[in-house]
Every structure is written in C-alpha cells, then in structure tokens.
Fold this sequence. Notes:
Elements: H1 3-10, H2 25-28, H3 32-47, H4 52-61, H5 63-75, H6 81-93, H7 101-108, H8 113-122, H9 129-141, H10 145-158, H11 168-178, H12 183-197
Helix pairs in contact: 1-3, 3-4, 4-5, 4-6, 5-6, 6-7, 6-8, 7-8, 7-9, 8-10, 9-10, 11-12
Amino acid sequence: MNTYQKFLDFFSMHNKERLDGLTSAYFDGMAQDERKRAYDFLFARVVSGGVEEDVNGIFMADSGKAMKDMAVLLNAKQLGNIAEIVVAGHMAAAGVNMDLLPIFINAMSSPERELRELGARYVPATVEPNVLNGLQGMVRTETDRRLLIQAATKLLQCFDLSVHTIDKDEYIDLFNDLLSNEIEKKERALAKAKALAQR
C-alpha cells in the first residue's frame, strides 16, 4: 500500500483507530505528487467546513502554501468556525501580521463547547487585556473541567507562571485554586496570579 493510500485510509478510521490523530508520519514518505494530492484533498475538506485535523494536516502537507491559501480564505471569511480558529492559531504561531486575537476571544465566549476549547488552546499566551479577560471569564464560569483546565493553564502561561518561574508547591496550589468550585478561591487565585506576574 502506498503512502498516499494510507493517508486516505486514515479518514475511514473510527473511534480508537483515530486516537493518535493525523500526524506528520502520514506525510513523511510521500512523493511530491502524493503530497500535492494530499494537500488538495485536505483543502477541499477545509473549504467545505473543516475540522481541526484537516487544518493541521494541510499545514503538514505544505506549510508555505497553506499559509498563503488559508490567509486568503480567512480574510474572505470563507472558513467554518472550527477551521477559522485553528488556521488563526497556526498563523499566530508563525508570527503572521494579521489581527487574529478577536477570533480567539470570540471563540472563548461561544456557547459551543468545542469552540471555547479551541479558542483557549490556540490563543497566543499574551498579556493583551482582552485575551486575559477571555481566559479569566472561562476560569470563572466554565463548568466543563477539561475546558477549565485548558483556560487555567493558558492563563498561567500568559502570566509566565510555571514550576520553573515560581515555587512548585505555590504553582500547584495556585492552579488547583483556579479549578476550585469556590468562587472566593478562584478570585484569590486570579488576584495572586496577577500579582506574581508583576513581581
């Protein structure tokens, strides 16, 4: 079986078979024409809506071309909600000079769970006020523990707080308080995180 066929077979897998996701290993052995066909296949999926692995895959297939093509679609507002966030994440990570932060900020306040998760995961770790407000809002209101962990983790990254920058036990206590069901603990932890970041 050739490499391109293995790539196509991935999209026929279900449940546990797809746990590892679409990784670079699917592209490593591809000839140039196979990689182009894979790119075209993924491009069609992204244009028709696109999920996270479609976008990640297109950047693995040809990152340079993906940057150009996805920028056009992003500017033209021709991407679905999920694809828009993931594309913006790739572009932000590459330092593309576009106004991308509103995409993540809007996602973090979405009524849709998946969009909130992607927003918190892909938003750059920055102390830009609207990013901090969005993450703090999730920490205060999120009831899904996985998303709460995502938001708390990114918020501490924004403040450059980790086991490497503050005492390990202090970091663990701070993180656990951000996840607390008690709003008083959350508020104290948020205030402490801000104070530690300003030291």
